Amino acid sequence: MMSRTEFFINSLSDEELSILKKIKYPSYMHNGKLLIDQEIESRGLTIERIETLYHKVVNSYHESGCNRCGSGHLIEIEVGSVQAQGGSNILNVVALLRGRKSIKGSRIECQICGYLIKDDSM
Ligand SMILES: [Zn+2]
Question: Has residue 102 got a pLDDT over 80?
Fold first, then answer.
């Protein structure tokens, strides 16, 4: 049985995998890092190849998907605001609709390079 992370990493193109390795890799837990490295090794991607793919994709024009890397792996999170206890401060939080939180909009983030495509919490 493949884990969700395993399935995700497996489904990436060589370009996406290269960008993930260059940008979001440090935010992964030990096991995730291991999976990324194993996938890179099994595809025979060298450090040079990763650099080439990264520079080819990042900051070039993308007709769809992420503005920065063109990936379609975007995650949308609902953004709400919550009343701070005992005060009138409104804190912006990224959360699912629950309790006293009210939905303000959403935040769309690229799962490959972390680019924020839309952020209503600002
Ligand atoms: Zn991206």
Answer: no
49 C-alpha vs ligand 1 centroid, how far in Å?
Answer: 19
Q: Among residues 113, 116, 115, which one has the least CA distance to residue 23?
A: 113
Backbone angles phi, psi at 39, to 5 degrees: -65, -45
Q: Is 52 exposed, middle or buried (0-12, 13-18, 19+ CB in 10 A)?
A: middle
**74 CA → ligand 1 middle, Å:** 8
Which residues have C-beta within 8 Å of that of residue 95, sequence separation ≥ 6? Answer: 78, 79, 80, 82, 101
Distance 97 CA to ligand 1 centre (A): 26
Give the environment of ion ligand 1: residues with CB less than 5 A. 66, 68-69, 71, 110, 112-113, 115
Give the Å distance between the CA of 22 and the centre of ligand 1: 12
Query: pTM of this prediction?
Result: 0.76
CA dist 39 and 74 (Å) reads 21
